[in-house]
Amino acid sequence: xxxxxxxxxxxxxxxxxxxxxxxxxxxxxxxxxxxxxxxxxxxxxxxxxxxxxxxxxxxxxxxxxxxxxxxxxxxxxxxxxxxxxxxxxxxxxxxxxxxxxxxxxxxxxxxxxxxxxxxxxxxxxxxxxxxxxxxxxxxxxxxxxxxxxxxxxxxxxxxxxxxxxxxxxxxxxxxxxxxxxxxxxxxxxxxxxxxxxxxxxxxxxxxxxxxxxxxxxxxxxxxxxxxxxxxxxxxxxxxxxxxxxxxxxxxxxxxxxxxxxxxxxxxxxxxxxxxxxxxxxxxxxxxxxxxxxxxxxx
Length: 298
Hints:
single chain; 298 residues; alpha+beta; four-stranded antiparallel sheet; 18 strands; 21% helix; globular
């Protein structure tokens, strides 16, 4: 087995999290972030801004006082011109502000989490049949730090085919935990949306994490909390057709987390300057969609 880059500190942090009541802590954080007392929420936002590099000048509302509570600030909208989409119509764009954890090819159904840690597409999607649509395809994992913009947007135009909620743990998804905890993204609570696009299926996976008090979608509203302890995933079909253009909002996180994109075989050529550890902004080009015959779009 390939060795990992996990340090003793990484391993200790991962072990500590296994002992924590992560769902209860995340629900508590969500409750605190919803407090509307003006003095409290303004102080909480300003304290947060002292520790993290946040530029409110690009936000729709530039004053701390304009936000109803911390969650309102954390999921703030940006000005319309702040994150333009690529001019290239076949570009697959970054759905978020964040940092690339890993990207590349799905090899024999396996994705890279970190050095020495692979995990399966079937485990991530909680559906072996669905995973087969992405066999030998591509993936890109993007980590959202606490200071990042936390709305998630469409990387390419598509129609929502189905979506799932997979209950799970709420371990941190920061690089330290990713290096130390095998199968992290397939263990955590997550929302999986499958879109049908011109090049075939596109999976957008929003992974919950420690202190991620909520996940929302534009079609279903708040998904969590509460954080389910069920053992099986919940699968849904949209009640009405939903078509989203590239750049349209599809959901949001309350606190930082991770988004994973999956594309089918030969569907996308990653940009040759892409690299793990690279900082991204919403709308940056990840790759270019390839022209596929209809027979390959399944």
